[in-house]
Design goal:
Blueprint lengths: L1 E2 L9 H8 L4 H16 L5 E10 L12 E5 L1 E2 L2 E2 L1 E3 L5 H10 L6 E2 L3 H14 L2 H6 L12 H13 L8 E4 L18 E4 L2 E3 L5 E3 L2 E3 L4 E5 L26 H21 L7 E8 L2 E8 L4 E4 L3 E2 L1 E6 L4 H11 L1 H4 L14 H5 L1 H10 L10 H27 L10
Parallel strand pairs: 8-9, 13-14
Antiparallel strand pairs: 1-7, 2-3, 2-6, 2-16, 4-5, 8-12, 10-11, 12-13, 14-15, 15-16, 15-17
Helix pairs in contact: 7-11
């Protein structure tokens, strides 16, 4: 890190002005409070460690039909949690150092410095943030497509490094109608598909091209409370949570993104990749490391807060900033947590795991007749299973007798 008074760089003038501007004093005070919570893992700033009990990842299934059954890892009968910032130490340190009252600092790394500037610009931009809360009462009835476009344009694009996101071309989005503010749209229609030819595959609603972070906007639940895991400790009241199906979709996309990135960049220092799900006024984040087989979740987070920043939850914004810049800020799982594996590798089995490692791709190119081929393979294996059963019955129970009912 470099002290503000010693770095010969005209770009730091922005940071100096930000610190001196009286209009930012309240914002900085709020951010210091939020970071204190983050350091202790308070106020929903922690992550839960998950174990996969079962899934349909061994079948040719699209993300929207993915099925994943998970439970919380526990320690001394309590759910195992850890501060999210333990997995994004560089991002956390960037904010803490800048907000140090006695000796504010900015990163030497230019990319990290730019990421910090973009966060501060968004947090202090009332016009941009107010768009996200305009007509808030009507947002529960707006389409998932409209919500995806609004969030992508006004919350996500300002935080991503390349300022461009790709929106699924199959959704037929109308960018011009995402809000009442006239602006140029930074979203591009395109191919957001990715997956494994033998397993999970499909499209994300929004995909960030360089970082391969997926975002899906899912329908709110219609029935009573549903748990984010099979563990009831994360249960939330009706309308405040995600359906089991939507959670499975986000988990599958997150897992798949990690395998895709690892295949493209096998020497990357960290394989922890995030995925985002948004449902009405909530968001949820999953993170998966396909090398260490670690699966984490934040649980549902409020997008809005009455006492927040222009009606938005500042904690949610900072979490999004960290995960959207995960290539800059993420780090490997601390050693003391590596034993709490997701068990996904075991659920897949060695053959399917190799397929996920070696065949995952983005964009995803479905092969003609692929589904039929997989069914054929299953049917062929099914015949061999019957042979195995017959043989094992003969070996295990050679003298077993039966009585005819004719």
């Amino acid at each position: 890190m470099a002290e503000l008074s010693k770095v010969d760089d005209n770009a730091i003038q922005y940071f100096q002005n930000f610190l001196c501007d009286e209009r930012n004093k309240k914002l900085m005070s709020m951010l210091r409070g939020v970071l204190s919570e983050f350091g202790l893992g308070l106020a929903r700033s922690s992550v839960f460690f998950l174990r996969v009990n079962a899934s349909n990842a061994n079948s040719y299934s699209c993300f929207k039909k993915a099925s994943v059954d998970t439970e919380l890892h526990r320690k001394d009968s309590r759910p195992l949690v850890a501060p999210l910032c333990l997995f994004f130490l560089r991002g956390y340190a960037t904010l803490v150092d800048f907000l140090d009252k006695c000796n504010p600092k900015i990163p030497d790394d230019l990319a990290e410095r730019q990421a910090l500037r973009e966060l501060l610009q968004l947090l202090s931009n009332a016009n941009e943030l107010s768009v996200l809360v305009e007509n808030k009462g009507e947002q529960k009835t707006e389409s998932e497509v409209t919500l995806a476009t609004r969030l992508a344009q006004h919350l996500l694009v300002p935080l991503v490094p390349d300022k461009t996101v790709v929106v699924d071309s199959d959704q037929h989005l109308h960018f011009a109608s995402c809000c009442s503010v006239g602006h140029s749209v930074s979203c591009e229609k395109g191919d957001t598909s990715f997956g494994c030819p033998r397993g999970w595959h499909g499209q994300a609603d929004v995909l960030f091209p360089d970082d391969k972070v997926s975002l899906s906007v899912v329908a709110p639940p219609e029935d009573d409370a549903v748990s984010v895991t099979s563990d009831s400790s994360l249960e939330i009241k009706k309308g405040e949570n995600f359906t089991t199906e939507s959670v499975s979709q986000v988990v599958a996309q997150t897992v798949m993104c990690s395998f895709v990135q690892q295949r493209k960049n096998p020497t990357q220092p960290c394989a922890l990749v995030p995925g985002i799900g948004i449902c009405s006024e909530k968001l949820i984040v999953y993170l998966y490391d396909c090398v260490e087989d670690i699966l984490l979740t934040t649980g549902p987070l409020d997008l809005y807060a009455q006492m927040g920043l222009f009606g938005l939850n500042p904690r949610a914004i900072i979490i999004l900033w960290l995960i959207l810049n995960h290539k800059l800020f993420s780090n490997k799982t601390p050693e003391r947590y590596k034993g709490y594996m997701a068990n996904f590798h075991h659920v897949l089995g060695p053959v399917q795991l190799e397929a996920y490692k070696n065949e995952s791709e983005q964009p995803f190119r479905a092969r003609p007749g692929e589904e039929e081929d997989i069914l054929k393979i299953f049917n062929e294996e099914h015949v061999s299973f019957e042979d195995d059963l017959t043989e094992e019955r003969r070996i295990q129970f050679p003298e077993r007798r039966s009585v005819s009912l004719n």
